[in-house]
Amino acid sequence: MRKALVFLLLILVALSGMACKETQSVDKVRLSEVVRSVFYAPQYVAISQGFFKEYGIDIELSTAWGADKGAAALVSGSVDIGFFGPEAAVYVYNQGAKNYLVAFAQLTKGDGSFFMARQPMPDFKWEDVKGKTIIGGRKGGVPQMVMEYVLRKYGIDPFEDLNMIQNIQFTATAGAFQSGTGDFIQLFEPTVSVLEKEGVGHVVASFRVAGGVIPFTAYHARADFLKKNPDLIQRFTNAIYKGQIWVQNHSAEEIAEAIKEFFPDIEMDILVKAMRRYQAQDTWSQNPIMTKAAFEHLQQIIEEAGELEKRVPYEKMVNTEFAVKAIQMVQP
């Protein structure tokens, strides 16, 4: 009789535990990403490996296709968290917004674009671009501003010493290069690996390496949302940090497999090659902390490009509290 009661008690406890799990609340988070890019692999890993679910978060992912559009969506309240470059938040702050945008977790620590030439140039020097034609990016966009910064660093005027093309849509630049326009082009993966495979172009430099450490992309929330939802923001940051840890401890092949569902049209060999390249140049942040030095370097780049009226205070634009706690709470 006693054994039967003990057995019944164990069953009741188990059923109680299952009920608690089933009724555990899950928070839906509307996340807007600036673009869909293999460059942001740790984010897709955090989703595919169930890290957000582990922290009681259901991600509703949308793509803004532009930092300006992502920031606008966040300001309007149509999304809860925006993933884009901090420069967009800087512009919003300088426009006098009271409920400005605050970065709380960084994902990438440098420009993820590459510089390609038509022919292999194993001894490439930046001086080689003088008198040539470069297909660049959008005026005021961080990739373009980083390229301008790098050229100036090597004593090259981006608008006097060469021909800079900036009137081609971002999605059409690779096609323009393939058709014969330009001597050099600035591109992201996986387009870089595709053009290499086709023999159309060859990587001669990395803007992550040449441009230095900058907070290229980070997660932002409105100041009031951050104050009202600290627990949610903490759980979100923990999940992102787990994604960052995961990509540090897995091979390019494993990362490619983990994010493949987000890029069904990209061939696996291209995806693997892109992951290897990003790993090799130390693209992803090891943790979510955005440092003041990196933030100020970004402001310097924007300033030199003539796109920043006045610098904004790091203490206003960045909150590292959640990133610091994530490092303490999440075990590598």
Provide tags for this entry.
about 15% strand, D-Maltodextrin-Binding Protein, domain 2, 5-stranded mixed β-sheet, 2 domains, alpha/beta, about 325 residues
Description of the molecule:
The chain is an alpha/beta fold and 332 residues long. 47% of the residues lie in helices and 16% in strands. The chain has 16 helices and ten strands. The chain has helices at 2-23, 41-48, 51-54, 67-76, 86-94, 142-153, 173-178, 191-198, 207-211, 223-228, 230-248, 252-259, 268-280, 292-304, 314-317, 321-329, and strands at residues 27-33, 57-63, 81-84, 101-108, 113-117, 133-135, 163-165, 184-188, 202-206, 217-222. Strands 2-1-3-10-4 form a five-stranded mixed β-sheet, sandwiched between helices. Helix 2 (41-48) packs across helix 12 (252-259), helix 8 (191-198) crosses helix 13 (268-280) and helix 12 crosses helix 13. The radius of gyration is 22 Å and the shape is globular.
